[in-house]
Amino acid sequence: MFFGGAPAGPAGTGKTETTKDMGRTLGIYVVVTNCSDQHRFRDMAKIFKGLCMSGLWGCFDEFNRIELEVLSVVAMQIESIMQAKKQNLKTFMFPGEPSPIKLSISVGYFITMNPGYAGRQELPENLKVLFRSVSMMVPNRETIMLVKLAAAGYSQYTTLSKKFCILYLLCEQQLSKTKHYDFGLRNILSVLRQSGAAKRGEPPETDEEMLFLRTVRDMNLSKLIADDVPLFQALLHDLFPKATNPPKKSYAKLEAMTKRLVQRNGMVQVESWMLKVIQLYEQSLVRHGFMLVGPTLSGKTQIINTLTGAMTEDSNPHRLVVMNPKAITEAQMYGVKDLASDEWTPGVFAMIWQQRNVRTLKYNTWIVCDGPIDAIWIENLNTVLDDNRILTLANNDRIPMTENCRIVFEVEDLRNASPATVSRAGIIFVSSTNLDWEPLAESWL
User: Fold this and answer.
1) Tell me: the pLDDT tens digits for 331-363?
2) pTM assigned to the model
3) Mode of pairing for the β-strands spanning 91-92 and 57-61
């Protein structure tokens, strides 16, 4: 039938990953593009022509963010490809092209959509009929946990996966409905990844239940608000009655460096605040994108400065690049194409991203976006924050993220962020009670 595929469903159900896995199974490379309202019909035409000539698959993430008038032209472009495939042609006339272009029969196009978020369009009817829609279901988490734990080398994988599944189910039901909470698939996978690393880093005879409990506790406590901490610990105690409150994993060298830096900068050592520095470090080991969420004057900026300073002194040089994304428009941030001349003007963030994501750099870079998050500018970073780790711009530039780069968001709240964004980033919640007014007054005196 030569239709395109259109998986639709809530965040974290594996729409893009399913498409990529299917392509991998058939031995076809899948090109993922993060669509935005900056995309014009000429940009889309370039991508489609490239796919037709090479026979690759294109996966267009957040397809319904493209403007309605552009979508209408895209429908015409896709229809011409579909008709050519039905007739089994070797070359065909692509709309707007003066001469025929080559067509490889293996070409495919898939669109993924999150319904009902801010800045989304309803697809026009002439576009809907060209795609076979697929509703994504929430997967069976227990099976995923069981397989991952077995692969990580846990011998008690059956009981641990069952307990882990019940724990997250109870967390979703009983903890407060705070905007930045996410107990979905991406969070589960990062916990499983870290528990695998913990298992490999400890002697074989170490108690597996204790190791797993410590990982789950340490990776979730960082995002919980103060009221939910006792409830979460009670749930852990009920599910893991044998392993009684295992000690936190210690990073002696880093903690010593942090204390020295705090003293040197004339700050006061507050235990709850120092814990947040360690939690941020733990998140940076498992995630490449994370958010520090908390009210003003809770010490978020100093947490980042202290941690990167401590790691730099520990012969692991780090540099910060700080910008306020709300001080400029979206076009100035990512870049804009001149409608008349078709000339591309790169944006501030795109330039920083290109300069800092270089493997040959002798230091690690943290790009800090210090300012409110809204669905308009952060949705462009969806492919950066998930496993694709690639920034796709409206001029079809694709800049991959390197291992020596991290992206950090410093925000007051996530009121305007979509679930798609929240599920992609690691969250460290800094409560106002972590740093009260006394340390500020004491350091000033």
Assistant:
1) 899 998 887 887 889 999 999 999 999 999 999
2) 0.85
3) unpaired
- Is 385:407 a contact under the CB 8 Å cutoff? yes
Residue pair 111/63 in contact (Cβ under 8 Å)? The answer is: yes
Pair type for strands 30-34 and 57-61: parallel
Chain CA centroid to CA 360, Å: 24
Contact criterion met (CB below 8 Å) for 394 and 36: yes
Tokens coding 179 = 């905007």
**DSSP summary character for residue 396:** S
Report how far residue 66's alpha carbon sits from residue 76's, in angstroms, rounded to the nearest whole number.
15
Check residue 119 and give its pLDDT.
59
Transcribe 333-376 into DSSP letters: HHEEE-TTT--EEE-HHHHHHHHH--TT-SSEEEEEEES---HH
Q: What residues does 291 pair with on adjacent strands? A: 409, 427
Q: Distance between CA atoms of 46 and 410, rounded to whole angstroms? A: 36
Q: Alpha helix (H) ranges present in 178-297?
A: 185-201, 208-221, 229-239, 252-264, 271-286
Predicted confidence (pLDDT) at residue 411 exceeds the cutoff of 90: yes
Residue 393 · residue 87 · CB < 8 Å:
no
Tokens representing residue 403 in the block = 């291992």
What do you get for the CA distance between the two ends of the chain, in Å? 76
Tokens 């974290």: give the residue: 12
Helix (H, G, I), strand (E, B) or coil at 289: strand
Instruction: Determine contact, residues 258/277, Cβ cutoff 8 Å.
Output: yes
Interatomic CA distance for residues 423 and 114, integer angstroms: 13
Q: How far is CA 349 from CA 203, 356, 386, in A?
A: 44, 11, 18
